[in-house]
Write a structure and sequence with these properties.
single chain; about 725 residues; mainly alpha; three-stranded antiparallel β-sheet; 29 helices; about 50% helix; about 5% strand; flat
Length: about 725
């Protein structure tokens, strides 16, 4: 059966025992060696095998410098070293001398070499003009061969082939060599399997495949005597072939991928072939990678079949893979419970059983975020069974009610503190992100609020210009499964245009840097996250307590939402910018903002105009009303260096003389403003005294005294604040 499938799948151009590809082939070609005039195909770092070895031997210098300075000729093209004796044209054999002169020096008792070389003995030489038969070699040939000493040794090592054939091997390459894969060592079916795999790789153009690695696989397979790749499991191939990892990691990777492709061909790559299996290979169902869904932990056949049907329905409706995994984990937990209490059929699942299960969940997961999710997944499953009539034996009492869910726990704020954002957004720190693509991704996440997966997968032509010449970033909202647009500023637009120039004709704006010949595959979120964390460590971003900041890219989305709310942007506008599906999702930012502000206000050390501590009991009976007053005061009477504590029903008799007002309250967050203000006051006093304006100087002396007391008090207590966690503004 498999043989017939292979015969039908492999095209004629891949059926040959010897497959020839151009060096410029996007999959099997390496391109030309970077060294000008080398003429050989590149293998690694843009260099042919010979020049790459030469580069490694030179200590891996700067590639551009190496390419410009190295000899373009490879080993077979380079002349062999000549004898150290002046005028001798024989090649070096030992000690820097040819064989004849080396023998003469030995017979002389090995005297001082420098003195001996000044007057060497006479040896037999060939007729004038007679040189080695290798075209580029000007050394004298040996007496019995038309080759110099070194080339004669090479000829012997290679089995003494015909002289004209041997000499042709050393002809200089004028065009880039072709890439050749020879499959003659393999049996008929195994050869067809490898041909099929090579054809798939050529069609998919997902990763480069060096012919040298293919040949290593061919030789390894031939040594095993296997008839088919399916003769062994993946683990057996991984363990039983090649040298210890990582020496042959490329060989193993290609071999395992080859087995998977042949297995997929044999088993089919559709739901019809995969559904009945207890382990789904998701690559056969249109998902990327080699992930699986394993149902073997659900031992009850009647329940396993229903769970598989439920997940097929949900995945077919566009459910994300991770959400599918959560559903499988939840139903696996329920299956283990049913097994433990002796449930033998779907008909045994009633309200009484569900209440027992809910009690178990509460005992194990109370207070944890996934408590409610476990209940929700089970409810969704039972509802789908009933709705689609998959099994009508499910009792009508098998119901989950709203009251069964745990009380919703308000999530902690995830927006980053402005102190942290100031460090992240500082131009000097952004410049330390040496990869311009990753730097741009970071700015898109911060300024446009995209989810990291959405940002990394934007197309190259992602910018849309409206009738007023305003730019918008177009992207696919993977969570909502729809296209969305978000307004961006001209600066971000200019950075995107620069990135478009860097990626050329690649379909995506942030293509993966390796194994991506056509630029179709976007950079993965894991790759970006690794670069992000290294950058944060390099910039030494720290929170209010001096601790290194740990964040996730998604927190920038929360930060943007909170920033917009704080700037009094209407919630509906924020919803559209973030492409939320409901106003309730956006309202969360407004609630979080108010919660965060209140928490920091209650925790912060507050002092009045005299520098005395101001005590406000956050837990007192008037706490809610007091906070309402403060919240209104902050919104309507906010000062640049503190807050007004005057009741909102009264008016201020002091105009703007806040620093002489008994109602004035400030915190440590305004210390920089206080210090700047103090410097300005000192300048005013000095100028007034110089002009003889005594009254003006006295008025400002009072303000200066108040500032000094405020600064001293806040400075004195700053260390204490940090030690107890007061004023922590990093919610992430």
């Amino acid at each position: 059966m498999l043989l017939e499938q292979l015969l039908g799948a492999v095209r004629p151009e891949f059926r040959a025992e010897v497959l020839v590809f151009a060096a410029a082939d996007p999959v099997f070609g390496g391109g030309a060696c970077r060294v000008e005039s080398c003429g050989r195909a590149a293998r690694s770092k843009g260099l042919c095998q010979g020049h790459h070895l030469r580069w490694v031997g030179a200590g891996r210098p700067d590639p551009d410098v190496f390419v410009a300075s190295t000899d373009h000729r490879w080993r077979r093209q380079r002349p062999n070293a000549a004898c150290r004796v002046t005028g001798c044209g024989y090649g070096t054999a030992r000690g820097g001398m040819c064989q004849l002169h080396g023998q003469r020096w030995d017979r002389a008792g090995r005297p001082d070499l420098h003195g001996w070389l000044a007057d060497p003995p006479t040896i037999k030489t060939p007729p004038p003009g007679v040189v080695c038969a290798v075209a580029h070699c000007d050394l004298w040939p040996q007496a019995t061969l038309p080759l110099c000493h070194a080339h004669a040794n090479t000829w012997k090592v290679n089995g003494r082939p015909a002289m004209d054939v041997f000499v042709c091997r050393f002809v200089e390459v004028t065009a880039t060599a072709e890439e050749i894969i020879r499959l003659g060592l393999l049996g008929p079916q195994l050869r067809l399997e490898i041909q099929y795999v090579l054809q798939c790789r050529h069609e998919q153009r997902a990763t480069k495949t060096l012919p040298a690695v293919v040949m290593a696989v061919v030789r390894a397979l031939a040594a095993t005597g296997a008839v088919s790749l399916l003769d062994r499991t993946e683990d057996e191939w991984r363990i039983g072939i090649g040298r210890p990892a990582p020496r042959d990691s490329n060989l193993r990777a290609l071999l395992i991928d080859a087995r998977r492709k042949v297995s997929d061909l044999a088993d089919g790559d559709s739901w019809e072939g995969e559904f009945d299996r207890d382990v789904w290979q998701l690559r056969r169902l249109g998902f990327t990678g080699n992930q699986r869904l394993d149902f073997t932990a659900i031992e009850q056949p009647w329940l396993r079949g229903l769970v598989k049907r439920w997940l097929r329905w949900r995945l077919g409706a566009g459910l994300g893979l991770e959400a599918g995994r959560r559903g499988l984990r939840s139903l696996t937990r329920f299956a283990l419970f049913c097994q433990r209490v002796g449930v033998g059929a779907l008909a045994d699942i009633d309200r009484v059983l569900l209440e027992r299960y809910l009690a178990d969940l509460h005992a194990e997961l109370a207070g944890r975020q996934r408590h409610g999710d476990q209940i929700g997944q089970l409810n969704s499953f039972l509802h789908a069974v009933r709705q689609h009539h998959w099994d009508d034996t499910l009792p009508a009492t098998a119901l989950v009610f709203t009251q069964d869910y745990p009380a919703r726990v308000e999530r902690a704020p995830r927006a980053l503190a402005e102190q942290v954002m100031a460090q992240i957004e500082h131009p000097d720190n952004l410049a330390r992100f040496t990869n311009p693509a990753y730097r741009l991704v970071t700015q898109i996440l911060i300024r446009a609020g995209l989810r990291v997966t959405d940002a990394l997968s934007v197309s190259r032509d992602c910018v849309v210009i409206d009738a007023e010449s305003a730019p918008y970033l177009r992207y696919l909202n993977h969570k909502m499964k729809r296209e969305a647009l978000v307004p961006i500023d001209e600066q971000l637009h200019a950075l995107i245009v620069e990135q478009q120039g860097r990626v050329g004709d690649a379909p995506v704006l942030f293509p993966r840097s390796t194994k991506n010949p056509d630029g179709r595959t976007a950079t993965t979120s894991s790759t970006y996250r690794l670069a992000l964390y290294r950058w944060l460590a390099l910039c030494d971003v720290r929170d209010a307590h001096g601790r290194p900041v740990r964040l996730t890219p998604h927190q920038w989305r929360h930060t943007l939402g909170t920033r917009l709310i704080n700037r009094d942007v209407p919630q509906e506008v924020v919803r559209r910018i973030l492409d939320h599906d409901s106003p309730q999702m956006t309202a969360h930012y407004a609630r979080l903002h108010d919660t965060t502000v209140r928490r920091h206000w209650e925790a912060a050390r507050k002092v009045d105009i005299a520098g005395a501590l101001v005590a406000i009991d956050p837990a007192g009976p008037l706490a809610e009303a007091a906070w309402a007053k403060q919240r209104l005061g902050r919104a309507t009477q906010a000062l640049p260096n503190g807050f007004c504590g005057l009741p909102v029903q009264k008016t201020c008799p002091h105009a703007n003389a806040c620093l002489t007002c008994p109602m004035f309250v400030t915190t440590a967050e305004f210390l920089p403003q206080h210090r700047t203000h103090r410097g300005q006051i000192i300048e005013l006093i000095t100028a007034a005294q110089a002009r003889g304006q005594t009254r003006l100087a006295e008025m400002n002396q009072q303000v200066l005294g108040n500032l000094d007391r405020i600064i001293d008090t806040l400075d004195h207590d700053a260390d204490d604040d940090a030690s107890v966690g007061i004023g922590d503004s990093d919610a992430g």
